[in-house]
Design a protein that fits this description.
With 164 residues, this protein is an alpha+beta fold. It is built from four helices and eight strands; from the N terminus they run ααββαββββββα. The C terminus is likely disordered. This is DNA primase/polymerase bifunctional N-terminal domain-containing protein.
């Protein structure tokens, strides 16, 4: 809708209502790393992880991005008490394509994701699988399950993106 979206971003309910009334088909993004983070994985790994998280009693909002990706909304690690634990995300500029980094992507401070409901250019949708009324789980607990699921389905990063 706007190239200045970052400076226009708001949580003001009245402003959001005005924008929605003006353009009810608009997609909304949420900045990550302030109130929440998003762990983004291939759908195959997401389905497997969702079953395991359910078995562990770990809830939290989850969205599907078409048939390709799952978004796990978690509490943030973007504002820890120890600033040495802070990191930023470069996922919106690097890597350039999903094929370069098909596995887990952690959207934290400096990143954003679409919020459901949203329409994608290919006609698919971003939709809630578990709604935003769910409490945000600890990201490290979810990360552990998602990492295992990505490994099991073969959704791992190219060597250049591996740590260690």
């Amino acid at each position: 809708m706007s190239f200045a979206w970052q400076s226009q971003a708001t949580t003001d309910a009245e402003q959001l209502a005005r924008w929605l009334s003006r353009d009810p088909q608009a997609n909304f993004v949420t900045a990550t790393g302030r109130a929440h983070d998003v762990l983004d994985v291939p759908a195959e790994a997401g389905r497997l992880a969702l079953e395991r998280l359910d078995a562990l009693g770990v809830g939290g909002p989850v969205a599907a991005v078409g048939d390709d990706r799952y978004l796990f909304f978690t509490a943030t690690r973007g504002t820890p008490a120890d600033e040495d634990e802070w990191w930023t995300s470069a996922l919106d500029s690097t890597p350039d394509t999903m094929s370069e980094h098909p596995g887990l992507r952690w959207h934290c401070r400096g990143s954003y994701t679409l919020l459901p409901p949203a329409a994608l250019p290919d006609g698919s949708e971003v939709r809630w699988l578990r709604g935003p009324e769910q409490s945000l789980p600890d990201p490290l607990r979810v990360l552990d399950v998602l990492t295992d699921a990505c490994t099991e389905v073969g959704a791992v990063a190219e060597e250049q993106w591996l740590i260690g």
